[in-house]
Amino acid sequence: MYYIAADFGAGSGRVIVGKLENGELNIDEIHRFPNRQINLGGRVYWDFLSLYEELKTGLKKAFTKYGSQIKSIGIDTWGVDYGLLDKKGRLLSNPVCYRDSRTQGMLEKAFECLPKEKFFSLAGNQFMEINTVFQLYSTVLEGDELLKNAEKLLFMPDLFAYFLTGKTVNEYTISSTSQMLNSLSREWDDTIFKSLSLPKKIMQEVVYPGTKIGDLTELLQKELGGNADVVAVGSHDTASALAAITADDDEWAFISSGTWSLMGMVTPTPLQMPEVLASDFTNEGAVSGEIRLLKNITGLWLIQSLVKEWSEQGQDCDYSQMVIDAEKSSCESMIDVSDSRFTAPQSMAKAICDYCAETKQDLPETQGDYMRLVCQSLAAEYAKVKQELEQSVGRKIKTIYIVGGGSQNGLLNKMTAQKTGCKVIAGPVEATAIGNIKVQAQASGELSKDNPLRLKGKGMELKTFLP
């Protein structure tokens, strides 16, 4: 049997086909496409229509190549963002991007209605203005007509699944990023919705990874040339990436490294003590039914922004060469990657230089300097979060698994090992797609939940870095 993983990241998306043979997974990247943010009328949107068309293109390619051997399709995306449907099931607007400015100042306004400590005791999430609950609350305060006309709210993977199947659900792992789901009951929390005057009626049934959502619609079957089950996976991409990790003990942490660095540990139940709140951790759902206790850290967004800026200025930007130059750089300056000035600056290079000037550090000059500065700043933040995790969870971390696209940055991996004192196992690069396919294979009965996948081929390699 073959399984399709549709993986949407904040910068690009892929459609990947995986095949299991005697417990060994091989993958085939069928289609890759960019994901962009569009500034229109003072709002920053995702181009959902384009993304959906790219998804269909990838599915059509997959059916053309593999035909009826395809068993199912799983979709994962970044967290917190959503689309709204009207009573006829029509999309009311392109989804707004979490980097839009509409949520600025929402935390303080929300806490006037629901105190921070009470809020955390209910949802257990890290307080970030980008979270779904604060996006919705901003529309309430604006008197947004879209929300008044909304019949259903679907998170991004749920939205793609809806237009494939006609079925509306809210998958658990993506729902757990919203800060509206009660962390213990795993149901939409009445107190949160009532306190912030949010319409709870727009939320859907929460389903878990491995649940069949539906078949492709008859219209799509004709258009794409095939049919398959659409299955809920770890629809939050970090949940899928974590599902790809196989560890021998419990003395480990993970970093899903990409636009964001999500660093954490797996715990049986949510941890919502005052010290967890103080450390800014979030409790989110894992594919296993356990909890991902993690912190969202600004990740390679810093480099992505620099590269975009330099490219627009006509500079050549070769990522691999930047890493090589960073190895040779003598720059020792560092930034606080959690500083809000780095969230969405007009110029990332200027924001970094301003920070260095204010803190009386040498200014980076070359692309290699900037890369080294970012890598050692991220590694220092990882070391800090490692200590906070150990204190919160009550067990030591000896190994850190780094998965996702950022696991290819050897300099960052090496610095992480040095600053944390942990063994670092980097890879697989395609962890999100692997975890996505793993859940589908388990749902089909082809793979036992106790049987780990064996990985083969490009994007599956592991590299070890010692402190």
Topology:
Blueprint: E1 2-8, E2 12-21, E3 24-34, E4 37-40, E5 43-46, H1 48-66, E6 70-76, E7 82-85, H2 106-113, H3 116-123, H4 132-142, H5 145-149, E8 152-155, H6 156-165, E9 170-171, H7 172-175, H8 190-195, E10 206-207, E11 212-215, H9 218-224, E12 229-231, H10 237-243, E13 252-257, E14 260-267, H11 274-278, E15 282-285, E16 291-298, H12 301-312, H13 319-328, H14 348-358, H15 367-393, E17 399-403, H16 410-420, E18 423-426, H17 431-444, E19 454-455, E20 463-465
Parallel strand pairs: 1-6, 3-19, 6-12, 9-10, 13-17, 17-18
Antiparallel strand pairs: 1-2, 2-3, 4-5, 7-8, 11-12, 13-14, 14-16, 15-16, 18-20
Helix pairs in contact: 10-17, 13-15, 15-16
Give an overview of the whole structure.
- By secondary structure, the chain is an alpha/beta fold.
- 37% of the residues lie in helices and 22% in strands.
- It has helices spanning 48-66, 106-113, 116-123, 132-142, 145-149, 156-165, 172-175, 190-195, 218-224, 237-243, 274-278, 301-312, 319-328, 348-358, 367-393, 410-420, 431-444, and strands spanning 2-8, 12-21, 24-34, 37-40, 43-46, 70-76, 82-85, 152-155, 170-171, 206-207, 212-215, 229-231, 252-257, 260-267, 282-285, 291-298, 399-403, 423-426, 454-455, 463-465.
- The strands form five sheets. Strands 11-12-6-1-2-3-19 form a seven-stranded mixed sheet, sandwiched between helices. Strands 15-16-14-13-17-18-20 form a seven-stranded mixed sheet, sandwiched between helices. A two-stranded antiparallel sheet has the order 4-5.
- A hairpin with a 2-residue loop joins strand 13 and strand 14 (260-267).
- Helix 13 (319-328) crosses helix 15.
- The longest helix is centred in the C-terminal third of the chain and has 27 residues, at 367-393.
- The protein is globular, with a radius of gyration of 21 Å.
- The two termini are 41 Å apart.
- The model has no long low-confidence stretch (mean pLDDT 95).
